[in-house]
Amino acid sequence: MTRIRPAAVLAALLLALPLSVAAGPPAGAAPARVAASAAPPAAVRVELPRPTGSYAVGQDVLELVDRDRTDPWVPASGPRRLMVSVYYPARAGSGGPAAYMTPGAARMLLDAKLPGNTVPTEALTEIRTWAASGARPAPGRYPLVLLSPGFTMPRTSLTGLAEDLSSHGYVVALIDHTYENTGTTFPDGSTLPCVMCGRLRSPEDWAGLDRSRARDVSFVIDRLTARPHPAWRYARMIDPARIGTAGHSAGGAAAVPALLADDRIRAGADLDGTMDVPVPATGLGGRPFLMVGHPLPDGAEDPSWAESWPRLDGWKRWLTVAGTNHASFTDFPILLDALGLPDDGRTLSSGRALQLTRTYLTAFFDLHLKGVAQPLLDGPTPRNPEVGFHP
């Protein structure tokens, strides 16, 4: 588990995006880069993999303001403000296409990784998603899963995972942690930058970030399950007795302090995140925990995972997915593969990596939030030879 890979993968992606959306290369581009794609630039249309569940997927975008908490990174800005995309089981054929990113957030992402670039914002805003904005909800009550992205990564990096979970009968709250990613757009039109990028230099800094994210998660739960005035118009869909949390990198690491601080969360999952807040000797109160990671060189183990593993006192699994790198559990490698671009350290296709991430995370929550038996989680299977189980 490393905090370097997402930025490296994203930089490679953004360097390549002009091939798919522009009539020609940006000024100063090397001729070899123009030849990197076999398809004409305008012919490349990137889309996320289709959700695999039986439900259509709806999406609402919420601004939530915690008036009891001053923003931890920019106190002068006032209360902590968050943007949250809520995905939910929906009635097919209702609503309109949901955008992947806002133009403001896309522009800041491009400018942060490629200062002075000429890549159009449409490179990111026009990525094909499968959720319908404002769709009518499907009947019933569903478990709630909170998703948190990696540090510097926008919440949209987990869109494919959020859409798939929702298609399997979950309400999913995908959180942008303000000032911790390249840009968060609010309804007033402002897009706030990554104030914390480059400022985390010690283990204590990282642990502080994870604990702050855990507070964000609990606040989102508060607002979505509040009675009689929840923040979301379809909050009646949520079963507050069935709540889980998961995330990638720092977002996954934040699952540990979230479980420690909030008894409402019944299960947690960490996708390749170093545990800056280790599992304490007293465990997690018997609650289940899933760890999914990429293989480290020479069979090494992340020390924080090795330390926390024996302390997990409930159902637990530690899965390693062969051929993946740190970003394989997000959307971004999908874009790299669509453009025919290499990605160092990854031999498993992005589609297969995301398929496995979706499959095992859904199985985990189906088992622990829905009570549906999942033999898939009992051990290795020939169907998924890439997935190894820690003894």
Would you give an account of this structure?
The protein is α/β, with parallel strands linked by helices and 391 residues long. It has one domain: Alpha/Beta hydrolase fold, catalytic domain (Rossmann fold). Helix content is 28%, strand content 20%. It contains twelve helices and 13 strands. It has helices at 5-16, 18-21, 31-34, 103-113, 122-125, 159-167, 203-225, 250-253, 255-261, 303-308, 332-338, 350-369; strands at 56-70, 79-90, 96-97, 132-133, 142-148, 171-176, 184-185, 191-192, 238-248, 265-271, 289-293, 316-321, 387-389. Strands 3-4-1-2-6-5-9-10-11-12-13 form an eleven-stranded mixed β-sheet, with helices on both faces. The chain has a two-stranded antiparallel ribbon with strand order 7-8. A hairpin with an 8-residue loop joins strand 1 (56-70) and strand 2. Helix 1 (5-16) runs parallel beside helix 11, helix 6 (159-167) crosses helix 12 and helix 7 packs across helix 9 (255-261).
